[in-house]
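Narrative of activities, Objective 1.

The group set out to show that a structural description can be obtained from nothing but a protein's sequence at a throughput compatible with the screening campaign. Below is one input-output pair from the validation batch, recorded exactly as produced.
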Amino acid sequence: MGGRRLVIRGQGLYYLLTGLWPIVSMSSFEAVTGPKADDWLVHMVGLLAMAVGIALLVGASHRMVSRETVLLSCSAALAFIVIDSVYALRGTISRVYLGDAAVEAVILLIVLLSRGRRRGRA
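Output recorded for this entry:
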């Protein structure tokens, strides 16, 4: 399995699990990330993260990762990096989100720097 495919598969699993976490246990999620004003919004972001995670897992299950899957991987990682960084640095959300931004940055860099398999190559 190629490096890009493996990282996107890991990203999909990461999104699936982190998205599921506040839905399964909002109290433990808030214990780590801080109190939230709107549970419904946290649940919506969790469900969206799960949807993206499932799409990434399906996309990474193919022998060749499509451009669409790479685009979803990179754009989702970038979205999390921006939101996590801006709002954590402003003090709106807990600085623990900077850890997620770092994970997302590593994912983004690996996906961008790794080469997918091309047709005709072994």
